[in-house]
Automatic annotation (TrEMBL), chain A:
Protein's UniProt name: Probable electron transfer flavoprotein subunit beta
Function: The electron transfer flavoprotein serves as a specific electron acceptor for several dehydrogenases, including five acyl-CoA dehydrogenases, glutaryl-CoA and sarcosine dehydrogenase. It transfers the electrons to the main mitochondrial respiratory chain via ETF-ubiquinone oxidoreductase (ETF dehydrogenase).
Assembly with partners or alone: Heterodimer of an alpha and a beta subunit.
Organism: Peltaster fructicola
Cofactor note: Binds 1 AMP per subunit. Binds 1 FAD per dimer.
SUPFAM superfamilies linked to this entry: Adenine nucleotide alpha hydrolases-like
Xref: Gene3D superfamilies: HUPs
An individual GO BP term: amino acid catabolic process
Family under the similarity heading: Belongs to the ETF beta-subunit/FixA family.
TrEMBL record, chain B:
GO molecular function, one term: flavin adenine dinucleotide binding
Cofactor(s) this protein cannot do without: FAD
Recorded GO CC terms: mitochondrial matrix
Entry-linked CDD domains: ETF_alpha
Function per UniProt: The electron transfer flavoprotein serves as a specific electron acceptor for several dehydrogenases, including five acyl-CoA dehydrogenases, glutaryl-CoA and sarcosine dehydrogenase. It transfers the electrons to the main mitochondrial respiratory chain via ETF-ubiquinone oxidoreductase (ETF dehydrogenase).
Protein name per Swiss-Prot or TrEMBL: Probable electron transfer flavoprotein subunit alpha
Family annotation (PANTHER family): ELECTRON TRANSFER FLAVOPROTEIN ALPHA, ELECTRON TRANSFER FLAVOPROTEIN SUBUNIT ALPHA, MITOCHONDRIAL
Annotated SMART domains: ETF (SM00893)
Length: 252, 299
């Protein structure tokens, strides 16, 4: 049996705790704020590292990111958490659409002979929840999305996934695509020695053209606006006050 | 439910609408679906291989029928099923999907929330067909009765799924379904334990005929089941009344409930962000206030 050759795509996004603000030109949100690794991608890296720690035959863990030069920091974080090396497709100008990213990942999977891809279920900026499924479709591989438990025995992957109303369990043979849900694990913090070591791990820089792809966008942003603001209706003194206010508002 | 909302969204596009069902006994299901208002035709594929909605065989099945029907738009609910399946379909069709739309602005223009609902994006698609998933709570569900669509057997490419469905474990409940309930009561970290959650929230829900929800903190702490989570990474709800106790109101939680008609909150921290969106706020200890509220509502 051959070992696991894992690919973990990670994305640099606005930190989850920052409240995004729409820019004046209504073309997007202000990006001059703190950025971090997409939280779901941290879970992906953690799961890959845990597979190795569970004595699965992991050949290597490749972290991948496509985006601006600063996405390199996110790849270093992934390597500090335990990824062995990184590939960075540098793209400064446009935010790549999930379909483009999926096509890019397909090439990486083929070039790097991957047999397991673990992605976050969605990135917390565009909230699309598409890339993993698209990649699975393009590769014609089995997919298990929103995983809360992953068990690998030889070539067989058993995945418990979060669905509406509960969980379901699927089984498939490698190669496979898995996307992570929040319950999958608790990502570790990278320790200082590991952060230092990660600086020496190989990080390859590439361009979209290296993979024969361009930044062709299928969707055009017409505008980005603030959501309608809700006005807090003030406070009531006691439970009776709450009930009468709710009646007044027609909610009871 | 999410399928009915998808039909409503489809009606805003103005053309004729076909439904699609596949699985064991799909012919009978199609006959039922034919009564749904707004449908012109229901395509069915009767094959038990599609019962579990596995995307590995369901996606090629849809693609085959989409191509045969020459559709300009393909819509599905942004449910666990739609989220899992539709991007695979979109990739096979080589189109960029538009997820979780809340409004249809035109034949090629759609509105969707991004950044956990902190920004609203309007996008225009140049793809054909346009593959779209629909936020169930953003569109009125049409009537399940009163329509008279024809039914027609679809094509079945009979692609084998490499994925085997093993089992499921669904939370059973007599309460209304969280995603579509008229009223939702929701508990957070402030409930302190599963015992307290189970002691205080169900009676309040029963008094209101409401579904029960929870914040991510409550779910992560094991107070409530995962499937009850309301928020960016859980369910989106937009009930007539969202009544929450012990929830501070993190942006990820607000993303899942801020389109509720009326929001009521009980929290002991007068500065909690939840009070900035609540129509009715009560500052107090939920361990006193929730039982009192439950008792007074029962009268």
């Amino acid at each position: 049996m051959s070992g696991l050759r894992i690919l973990v795509p990670v994305k640099r996004v606005i930190d989850y705790a920052v409240k995004p603000r729409v820019n004046k030109a209504q073309t997007g949100v202000e990006t001059n704020v703190k950025h971090s690794m997409n939280p779901f991608d941290e879970l992906s890296i953690e799961e890959a590292v845990r597979l190795r720690e569970r004595k699965q035959p992991v050949e290597d863990i490749l972290a991948f990111s496509a985006g601006p030069a600063k996405a390199q920091d996110i790849l270093r974080t992934a390597m500090a958490m335990g990824a062995d090396r990184g590939i960075h497709v540098v793209e400064e100008k446009v935010e790549l659409e999930p379909l483009t990213v999926a096509k890019l990942l397909k090439k990486v999977v083929e070039d790097e002979k991957r047999n397991l891809v673990i992605l976050g279920k969605q990135s917390i900026d565009d909230d699309a929840n598409q890339t993993g499924q698209m990649l699975a479709g393009l590769l014609n591989w089995p997919q298990a999305t929103q995983a809360s438990k992953v068990e690998i025995d030889g070539e067989t992957c058993t995945v418990t996934r979060e669905v509406d109303g509960g969980v379901e369990t699927l089984k498939a043979k490698l190669p496979m695509i898995i996307t992570t849900d929040l319950r999958l694990n608790e990502p570790r913090y990278a320790s200082l020695p590991n952060i230092m070591k990660a600086k020496k791990k190989p990080l390859e820089k590439k361009t979209l053209a290296d993979y024969g792809l361009d930044t062709n966008q299928r969707l055009k942003t017409v505008k980005v606006t603030e959501p309608p603001a809700r006005q807090g209706g003030g406070k009531v003194e006691d439970v009776d006050g709450m009930i009468s206010k709710l009646k007044e508002l027609g909610a009871l | 439910m999410s399928s009915l909302a998808a039909i409503t969204a489809a009606q805003k596009l103005g053309g004729s609408i076909h439904g699609f069902v596949a699985g064991s006994g799909a012919k009978e299901v199609a006959a039922e679906a034919a009564k749904v208002e707004g449908l012109e035709k229901v395509i069915f594929v009767d094959n038990g291989a599609y019962d579990k909605g596995l995307p590995e065989n369901f996606a090629p099945l849809l693609v085959e029928n989409i191509k045969k029907g020459g559709y300009s738009h393909v819509l599905a609910g942004h449910s666990a099923f739609g989220k899992n399946l539709m991007p695979r379909v979109a990739a096979l069709l080589d189109v960029q999907q538009i997820s979780d739309i809340t409004s249809v602005e035109g034949e090629d223009t759609f509105v969707r929330p991004i950044y956990a609902g902190n920004a609203i994006l309007t996008v225009q698609s140049s793809d054909s067909p346009k593959v779209v998933t629909v936020r169930g709570t953003a569109f009125q569900s049409g009537a399940a009765e009163g329509g008279s669509a024809s039914t027609e057997e679809g094509t079945d490419p009979k692609v084998e799924s490499p994925t085997e469905w093993v089992s499921e474990s669904l939370t059973k409940s007599d309460r209304p379904e969280l995603g579509s309930a008229e009223r939702v009561v929701s508990g957070g970290r402030g409930l302190k334990s599963k015992e307290e959650f189970d002691r205080l929230m169900p009676p309040l829900a029963d008094a209101l005929g409401a579904a029960i929800g929870a914040s991510r903190a409550a779910v992560d702490s094991g107070f409530a089941d995962n499937s009850l989570q309301v928020g960016q990474t859980g369910k989106n709800v937009a009930p007539q009344l969202y009544l929450c106790a012990g929830i501070s109101g993190a942006i990820q939680h607000l993303a899942g409930m801020k389109d509720s008609k009326v929001i009521a909150a009980i929290n002991k921290d007068a500065e909690a962000p939840i009070f900035q969106v609540a129509d009715v706020g009560l500052v107090g200890d939920l361990f006193d206030k929730v039982p009192e509220l439950t008792e007074k509502l029962q009268k």
